[in-house]
Amino acid sequence: MKSLASLLFCGLVASLAITTAQEPPTRPRELDAPIVLGPDDKPAYPAPPEGYNKPNDKGPRGKLEMIEYDSKVVGTKRKMQVYTPPGYTADQKYPVLYLLHGIGGDETEWQRFVNVDALIDNLIHDKKAEPMIVVMPNGRAQKDDRPVGNVFAAAPAFAVFERDLLDDVIPAIDSRYSTRADREHRALAGLSMGGGQTLNFGLTHLDTFAWIGAFSAAPNTKPPAELVPDPAKATKELKLLMITCGNKDGLINFSQGMHAYLKQHKVPHVWHVDGHGHDATHWGHALREFAQRIFR
């Protein structure tokens, strides 16, 4: 059996290629495996309009800030980027979306790839999304959490982040911001490595998250039967489970396997396959759709 680090190297080169201009020294054979599409592998929603994630003059903008928090799990101060919606006030309680990045990224990746602040601002202005706080933490739970050198060597730290997220990140956000601190008002989503983390952490902590979105989930995703051992319980407790992938993405088999298991066990979910690859365009479109569906 391959090690976790080996599996991640085999599956996550596409994510790293977006963040660096250099090609990896070798191309894993798994990325060149044939992509087999089935009748369910089709779009569940249309592509967004042009400019969906560009700033406009519709109204006031939200605020984007970088904050620090004490991580007892890691034993150091760590950073995360936080978006608060237009008109944010401590007199109102807000739901929170936690967004997780890929193996080659950090707490800035979602913003760099997708312009999260403008995307959410535009949805709120158009009354297509609830005003929400969006938290973009660093999913690499180790003291040197910068994505430099051999980023695949840090694979175990992405598993450690489960405790950092639950024990340090969420309490820090709930103490610093005016949040609605319950599962019905807490969502978790991520791209690539972060998509795998989302399924691994979200589906096994339904007491913490009711809304889950995995975009282009990577090989760190645990087997479906391990993540959803009790389909009836998952059906009852999930407000939304959304899984997406591009039909040119060499990692699609992981998402297909999750969809097949959920369909077999009649667990409601959104399964979306579009014409993109393992890329920021797919992730931006997925985030826009997910943001419209949560907290409603």
From TrEMBL:
<feature type="signal peptide">
    <location>
        <begin position="1"/>
        <end position="21"/>
    </location>
</feature>
<dbReference type="InterPro" id="IPR029058">
    <property type="entry name" value="AB_hydrolase_fold"/>
</dbReference>
<dbReference type="InterPro" id="IPR000801">
    <property type="entry name" value="Esterase-like"/>
</dbReference>
<keyword id="KW-0732">Signal</keyword>
<protein>
    <submittedName>
        <fullName>Alpha/beta hydrolase-fold protein</fullName>
    </submittedName>
</protein>
<feature type="region of interest" description="Disordered">
    <location>
        <begin position="22"/>
        <end position="62"/>
    </location>
</feature>
<dbReference type="GO" id="GO:0016787">
    <property type="term" value="F:hydrolase activity"/>
</dbReference>
<keyword id="KW-0378">Hydrolase</keyword>
<dbReference type="InterPro" id="IPR050583">
    <property type="entry name" value="Mycobacterial_A85_antigen"/>
</dbReference>
<dbReference type="Pfam" id="PF00756">
    <property type="entry name" value="Esterase"/>
</dbReference>
